[in-house]
Amino acid sequence: MKSAPPPVASPRETVALKLLVVLSRAAASVHGHVMADIATHGLTPAEFGVLEALHHKGPLLLGDLQRKILVSSGGITFLVDRLTAKGLVERKACPEDGRARYATLTRKGEALIARIFPTHAARVAEAVAGLTRTEQEQAIHLLRTLGRAADATLPENSE
Amino acid sequence: MKSAPPPVASPRETVALKLLVVLSRAAASVHGHVMADIATHGLTPAEFGVLEALHHKGPLLLGDLQRKILVSSGGITFLVDRLTAKGLVERKACPEDGRARYATLTRKGEALIARIFPTHAARVAEAVAGLTRTEQEQAIHLLRTLGRAADATLPENSE
DNA sequence: TTTGGTTATCTCAGGACTGAGCGATTTTAC
DNA sequence: GTAAAATCGCTCAGTCCTGAGATAACCAAA
Q1: Is A157 part of any domain?
Q2: A91 strand-pairing partners
Q3: Which of A58, B85, B94, B107 is spaced 20 to 30 A from A152 at the CA atom?
């Protein structure tokens, strides 16, 4: 004699909630692989992100770096401080803007990222190998659309 | 006279790395929506996860709860402590196992989650509205496959 | 029963990061 | 040319959470 549970969510919401769950779990799982790799080199994911960004883009203003790896303003200062203490990154003055600073890789930092990046790439490929190449490309397309749309409707991003 | 950059990654790895990026960004964007909603009720995402899980599954052993919301063993103790202090959750002894504890919602906790869940569901639906219903179902399928496979190849998960 | 191995939770020290607010600089408007 | 507004990075107090170890309870075998 049990009564049916109340319809707490419409079908549309049910699908959306399921998508949220699998998205979070997939991201966490893949992240787990990546972290395990990165941690063996004594780096946090955020530190690795900084090194990777500088490796591929060259010197970057701290603000650009911040937006790229998605940390707070205090976070990027903290990260660059720590990487500087490790001798992997340096700050350079920006000639056009006295407020801004460039972050650049030192020789040692460049050598480190060049050494560990190939392993990282292989590990990522392995982590996503559950999908075929075609499926990966489908997923990329869907996730890019999803991410863009979600960003656009975020309140604080007025643009 | 610039030489071509060295092939740092194979095409397979390039696709995998791109997938990692869009996956992380999509998860972060959707997470942003959810957090903004949850924070207005004075809850952290992890706290909300606990309430949501108990709301839908009923009383749960702490260990099951821990695996469900993906926190460390210390984390689940901390979360249940804090929710207990807020009067939203209680611990109950487990008759069959003296080591284990159930977490259950209090009246107040049940009332809170019942009140805020509909808004949450609507917000999630809005956050993923950049994809059509069909696309959402494709994404769910792909992400579920991806997550499962990634978990299975994670070293510490032997099963 | 006793012993040892597992499992479930808790304790606690510490780390990564946030976010509000600050000074310094640049840009814009008058 | 100067005052107001915006932008950049930094400081710092505080938060959430991790992870290694401790404690207690269960279970199987001798």
Answers
A1: no
A2: A103
A3: A58
Contacts with B13 from chain A: Cβ below 8 Å: 121-122, 124-125
**SS3 state at A74:** helix
Write the CATH number for A25: 1.10.10.10
Quick one: pLDDT band at residue B158, thresholds 50, 70, 90?
Answer: very low
Which pLDDT score, from 0 to 100, does residue A144 have?
96
What is the tally of structural domains in chain B?
1
Contact call for residues A60 and A53 (beta carbons, < 8 A)? yes
pLDDT digits 0-9 by tens, B82-102: 999 999 999 999 998 988 999
The confidence score (pLDDT) of residue A4 equals 47
Comparing alpha-carbon positions, the chain B residue that sits nearest to A119 is B9
Partner-chain contact A150 B138, CB within 8 Å: no
- Cβ atoms of residues A79 and A43 within 8 Å: no
User: Positive or negative, the Cα torsion across B91, B48, B57, B60?
Assistant: negative
Provide the sign of the torsion angle of the four alpha carbons B121, B123, B125, B127, taken in this order. Answer: negative
pLDDT at B157: 44
Pick from A70, A17, A56, A138: nearest CA to B19: A138
